[in-house]
Amino acid sequence: MVFAIKEINENPTVLPNxxxxxxxxxxxYSEIRALEGTVWLLSRQQDKDxxxxxxxxxxxxxxxxxxxxxxxxxxxxxxxxxxxxxxxxGSAYPSLSDKTQFPSFFRTVPSDKFQSIAIAQxxxxxxxxxxxILASQNDLGEMGSQALKTAIVSxxxxxxxxxxxxxxxxxxxxxxxxxxxxKSSANVIVLYSTIEPLIPLLEEITSKGVTGKVWIGxxxxxxxxxxxxxxxxxxxxGSLGVAVQRGEIARFRDFLYNIHPYKFPNDIFITDFxxxxxxxQWSKVNSTKSELGSExxxxxxxxxxxxxxxxxxxxxxxxxxxxxxxxxxxxxxALQSMFFCNSKEQSLGNVSCENIxxxxxxxxxxxxxxxxxxTTAGHEIYFDENGDIPASxxxxxxxxxxxxxxxxxxxxxxxxxxxxxxxxxxxxxxVWWNGDFSEVPRSVCSENCQPGHRKAxxxxxxxxxxxxxxxxxxxxxxxxxxxxxxxxxxxLWSNDRQDKCIQKLTEVLSYEDPLGAVLAAIxxxxxxxxxxxLCVFIRNQETPxxxxxxxELSYILLLAxxxxxxxxxxxxxxxxxxxxxxxxxxxxxxxxLAISCILAxxxxxxxxxxxxxxxxxxxxxxxxxxxxSVVFGCTLIQILLCSGWMIFSPxxxxxxxxxxxxxxxxxxNDGSVTTFWGMLGYMGLLASVSLIVAFLARNLPDNFNDAKxxxxxxxxxxxxxxxxxxxxxxxxxxxxxxxEVFAILASTAGMLICIFFPKCYIILxxxxxxxxxxxxxxxxxxxxxxxxxxxxxxxx
Length: 796
Hints:
By secondary structure, the chain is α/β, with parallel strands linked by helices. It has 24 helices and 24 strands.
């Protein structure tokens, strides 16, 4: 401040012919002393030490200070009542921006609310997710830490813990805080506290061997020279700090290096500084050597300031020094505008240029609001409506060297001049991390979820703590830390890693498919067997076994069974419009034809044996065309049903996207599901009637009787198709088609084997049984049995 006022006085363009003076009062970080100093500076009491001619101390034009917020608050309340200008160079308490409470308060350091934003952006820049906060137990620490927590959470990060550290009687809580820090998985700890309680805390942390943490300091201490122990410096190595913007002050270093008690005999601070810096003591008047003490050397005045250790007297890093320099120049610029205003300034609020002998505080406040200048460091200085300058912080990195020396380096900057929320800029290559880290350390509650997984929050824990769950089939997560999975389009499916949608595999029961090839081969084989049996029957058509049960019906049944085997081939292969249109109706019609033939054969058996009874006119009453009528009538009903199906709701080929996982099934849409099940129901009805009729005729003689074989064939048919229904409904993809083909094959083979294999056995292997005598013996035995049965009935 002294240098700034000296610089203003020597500048002919600022306040020409006017000399600024000053009074300095040390408030010693005490609110009471700050109030005492404020009253002392504002009073007009006689000052015996004043060099002024009248001995009456005039009030200063403005008050610069104080440094701590706790001292500035009571000062600002009193000065605000009188609209007395106050410019603080270190108070960052956010509520000081409230012009309702503090109308005449200005400051040349950023409001602390921006510090929380700067630290939150620093956390976001290095992608730290899991943060611990230690705050001092006062208004600045508690409110600032809450603002920091809010800023961190709004950036999608989480706070692992927020603990307070009392500024008085704090040692009892240090073991507890040390244990919290040691057990926490958070590797980044923000120390939102003043320096006093941090020294014993860091000593305890160091003694407990807590390592692997990145400490972030605030403007209350940043990286302070008060940490003198080498062990603490090792703990803090690689830490980051947010500090008030540093600014170069031209020629200030030379001014500092040339200060000497002899040059400033009336400066009460220089002698104390000299004794502290050089470890000596000035001899007082009438003092003796014994009074100085044997261990304290006397100050000679030949000591050189530029030889002082930089850790104690760093003339290269001006921070609060720079802000106090700016504060003094701000007052100078306001006074310049006040005493030498132009016509434009005169029009502002009807304020005219003032006389230097009539400096009213509230008028100076008006001119302070419109101050706008650029410092020698190139920083633009002006106040907003809250009396704050644009926020700007330096990002510092504490670096400890192998030889034991240490220093903090400027590695980045946070600035709000270009954006209201601030922009952070960091040189990653300039940052040195703690020896435990070779690269940017990680601080997470849960590790990142890899692609293919989604985050599932843990109940009762912050959002940064989660479990990684693999996406369901058909869904993907194509980036890390996905909060949800994306469903693949219908034509696509997820790959094995669940991180990419790929084309679904096409599925169809084709001839190239082993299952399709086997079914087709078996059906063709049985079709060949059926043709062979037909040939055997035609070749032996005059034999009694062939003629016994309507050989024409046997031929029609064999042809129907052969078509049943062959129609199943329509179900195999790539569906087309023609195959879809024909396969179900063809299957229904030929099966109905086959079952109608079996029903007709059963009716013929009953007619043949009931007609042999005495006095029976059954054959004459029913006629000889009954079998043909049964076959034609029963088949016609199915033909009409299938024809209506083909006309009004025909089947058509389609691609089924939902049939199976990762597959597209090419299939036939059967159109009307009701008609499909109606067709099957009608076939079941014919089979049931045939089964009942054949069961009633099961005890007739074997050589003539097909009823027993028909009963077995219908039982096989019913078993197959009753099993088909649940199997068909519970399968997807190509398997419903395979189930239907298998049902056709099994039921057709069952009818073929049960009805015709016994006859083939007699024709081919037992020709001795295939003669009229054997058949007539059966008839005689049957007639005798029937007559005996009739006599028994008559006796009863």
